[in-house]
Amino acid sequence: MNFRKIIKNDKKFQNIFKNMPDSIIDKWEVKEYQAGEIICHQGEISDYFYYILDGYLSIYLMAENGSKYVQSIYKRANYFGELEIFNQQPYVCTVETISSSKIIRLQRKYFMQWLKEDQDYLLYLTRTLCDSFYKLSQKAGEDMLYSLRYRICNYLVYKVEAAQKSSGRVELKLDKKQLSDQLAVTKRSINRVLKKLSQKGILEFSSQSIIIKDLKALKQEEELSRYQ
């Protein structure tokens, strides 16, 4: 499927790309990936700007000792590569597919031309970049200032709300390794907090999932731990 057909059949992308110059439209490349494939390697030089058409991607930092810190999970209509592309800097993070994914990418020279000719998109890019930096600043502050108990409760509440659940038992396909990567702490530390929450009847967990048994109590625990 070429880029013109993609935007013709998708209202969200029609809105994003509505003023794109015709000279740029045919420069986009469509790429498909299986789960577990690396799209961008941390430390490599950037030459493309990307959009996600379908699928989920993990954006993470990897330390020399193998420690992994997941900055974010990206989904449909998210873009990446914007931080590095202007000055052709090495990728700050690795981008890896979590599921089968379809991506579109635009070479740097065409990306720069697009921004010069499409002021509406330049404004959109600036606004969404500011929103992204705002959320990253919030996350960095929480990682430094708040207890691990609060951060775990906060993240679990976020995952439940993202699943659009408000009551009853909620099973999250989330294991201790994923929590460890997301919060940049050891699995042992994660396990200690989960055990305490389990003893309080708030949740139960296995090797592959966490089941929220009492969402109200989890939110109360989140609020209490914020001030401890």
Automatic annotation (TrEMBL):
SUPFAM superfamilies: cAMP-binding domain-like (SSF51206), Winged helix' DNA-binding domain (SSF46785). This is Predicted N-ribosylNicotinamide CRP-like regulator. It holds the Pfam family cNMP_binding. InterPro entries: cNMP-bd_dom, cNMP-bd_dom_sf, Env_Response_Regulators, HTH_CRP, RmlC-like_jellyroll, WH-like_DNA-bd_sf, WH_DNA-bd_sf. It comes from Halanaerobium saccharolyticum subsp. saccharolyticum DSM 6643. Keywords: DNA-binding, Transcription, Transcription regulation. GO terms for cellular component: cytosol. One of its GO terms (molecular function) is DNA-binding transcription factor activity. Residues 12-115 form the Cyclic nucleotide-binding domain.
